Amino acid sequence: MRLSPHPRVPRFAPLLAAAGLLAAALPLVSANAAAAAPADGHRPPKPSWHRCDAGQPASYECATIKVPLDYRRPEGRRIDLAISRIKTPDTAKRHGVMLMNPGGPGGTGLDLPLMMEESMPKEVRERYDLIGFDPRGVGRSSPVTCGLSEAEQNVDRAYRPETYASDVAWARTVADKCREKAGDVIPYITTRNTARDMDAIRAALGERTVSYVGYSYGTYLGAVYSQMFPQRTDRFVLDSGVDPERVWRGMIQVWATEAEPAFRRWARWTAERDGEYHLGTTAEAVSRTFWDLVARADRDPIELEGRKLTGDDIRSARGVFFYPATAAPMVSALKAAAESGPRPSGPSAAELMKALRPAGPAPDTGTAVFWSVVCGDTDAWPRDPEQYRRDAVKDERRYPLYGDMASNIKPCAFWERPREAVTPMKTRANVLTVQNEWDSQTPLVSGQGLHRSLKGSRMVLAMGGEGHGVYLADPRSCANAPVNAYLSTGRLPAEDVTCRTPAAGGERGAAPQPQRPLPLPFPAAPQRF
Questions:
Q1: Is residue 167 among the annotated active site residues?
Q2: What is the pTM of this model?
Q3: Mean pLDDT, all residues of the chain
Q4: Among 141, 216, 457, 488, which one carries the catalytic annotation?
Q5: Beta-bridge partners for 14
């Protein structure tokens, strides 16, 4: 998933090796043990593994299994599910398999074993065969398309009374195109069916249980799996949590509510560094400078890096304010462009453009799957366009940075009714949730909601942590050690853990330079969890 609008977020963050803890000796789970049948009652044949690519290590293997499109009709149409693996280098210490999901909905995950193998400490890595997969509908897993144009993939639509009719038309067009192009498949691209696919992978591998690391949307997928298949849930790490009580409209609206405290924090941070950024000596002055730029750009778009930016374009970059050391030079570059006219503005200007929009058109597979899941998981979306209008007007006043965009009409208003009810979180789940304090896509209140919903879970909260994704995403994160301990021993912390991650770059707060960005295949649009 592409987590625009923050330039660090779309690449997730560097996955770097973290210091691990000594692993305790554990009883082994044989890969050849008799496994429970998957959700459709049919044990699939063993995967036919082959080298994924001649340019990749021979240990990185791929296969394709067949799963039902509709698990209620297991003998009916079947679709491809692409899976990958890198086996543990130490079979004597093997605990089992670890499935992984990078987020989305609409993100591919086939190459995650390569990323995680390089990043995990030895004490964790030797415990697992690492298993990646492209969720149904994306990548190599029977990909779907709605035939959407680049403009139709843009979800950041500011509310204006005079343009609301075109917003409604856009939402209806997206829903209609998806029905026309893939209406026989899209109703079955849901979180519950993807959880069933995970269980089919487990059965195909001959395992009784699975362990799992899921980021962002992957936390909700893991939570749903833990409720549908509690006896098959082993060591689960749910990193950067989606609140089950907010799926899915509330998860988009939380981008607006939580952008406001992040913006205030940025304004305070920037005011303390006025000698460098020249945006104001107080938080109020910095805020006024920003909103003056927005108003100016609405009257007369500001040209930067060859593109004219409106005030709405600038507001759509709300996620960047969770990262003050990145946001301040960007706004400074924008101010310089407004005062001096178009000119090369250096790396800050280029980073701002990346934050606002990815370069070039992108296929719509990720977007098609995003809406399939977000609209198809729950029937909680309003069906009356007037409800969206009222909410957008109200939230524009309450949350000026992004409130109208978050609450404006979405294609779900015209989507087919879901085939299943949303998954209740009633079964005890002894899983570990992980959260940064400052996360633009799944903010702290969302992560706390996930922890609260999963009875029996423990939470590791990295105070001061910035970024979407915690475990292994930042080598400085105080969350790495307790996660490593859990994955290597299977023992949850006795109580929730709150720790503090040191400020990036020390007191000055300069953003760290990533040594190796994790090339997660984030779709181009819309913004993702």
A1: no
A2: 0.89
A3: 88
A4: 216
A5: 517
